[in-house]
Amino acid sequence: MTIALIIIAVLVVLILLYVATTYNKLVHLRNLVKDQWSQIDVLLKRRADLIPNLVETVKGYASHEKETLDAVITARNKAVSATTPEAEMKANGELTQALGRLMAIAEAYPDLKANTNFMDLQNNLKETEDKIAYARQFYNDAVLNYKNKLEMFPSNIIAGIFNFKPEAFFEATDAEKETPKVQF
């Protein structure tokens, strides 16, 4: 009888250790997703801070492109005021598209392309866009690892018991996938 109790006690301890380890791994992965999102957020803030300077520089050379400049500012304001990751993803997709149109318009103005302020802003924006792309990739990798842990057996049981929820991937919108159309 004592051997049976020892075996049961060992099994209970092993199960509790597995539950604790799996729970901690799920918490770690969820926090990694949040960390990666905050990295994107920092870069999106940097991009939003660059845009007013870029728009002001372009205004001096292409003031009659008011519609495009207004679209960039409107998209930037939506991105800055978004409150959820999903809303931020959508708003930043619109902003990316508007920036693409702005950069395409800038190509049509040789004096603007030669302006050092514009070139510096454009380079800073390009660097930031590249960093955003990498951060999105890292975020999506973290989401994938987290989702895998949530959905794989037997960790999915523990995830269900402790009410872990999946996170959304950062996906390009249809608008972001399109080439910007510029008409003169």
Structure commentary:
The chain is an all-alpha fold. Helices cover 82% and strands 0% of the residues. It is built from 7 helices and no strands. The longest helix is centred in the N-terminal third of the chain and has 60 residues. 23% of the residues are buried.
Radius of gyration, taken over Cα atoms and rounded to an integer in Å: 24 Å
Quantity of strands, as a count:
0
Proportion of helical residues: over 70%
How far is the N terminus from the C terminus? 90 Å
Give the uncertain stretches in residue-range form: none
Order of helices and strands: HHHHHHH
Task: Describe the sheet with the most strands.
Answer: none
Strand content: under 5%
What does the average pLDDT come to? 86
The structure class reads mainly alpha
Q: If helices are DSSP runs of H or I spanning 4 or more residues, what is the number of helices? A: 7
Shape: rod-shaped
Quick structural summary:
The protein is mostly helical. The protein has helices at 2-61, 66-81, 85-106, 110-114, 116-151, 155-161, 174-177.
Structure characteristics:
mainly alpha; single chain; 7 helices; rod-shaped; 184 residues
Topology:
Blueprint (H helix, E strand, L loop, with lengths): L1 H60 L4 H16 L3 H22 L3 H5 L1 H36 L3 H7 L12 H4 L7
Helix pairs in contact: 1-2, 1-5, 2-3
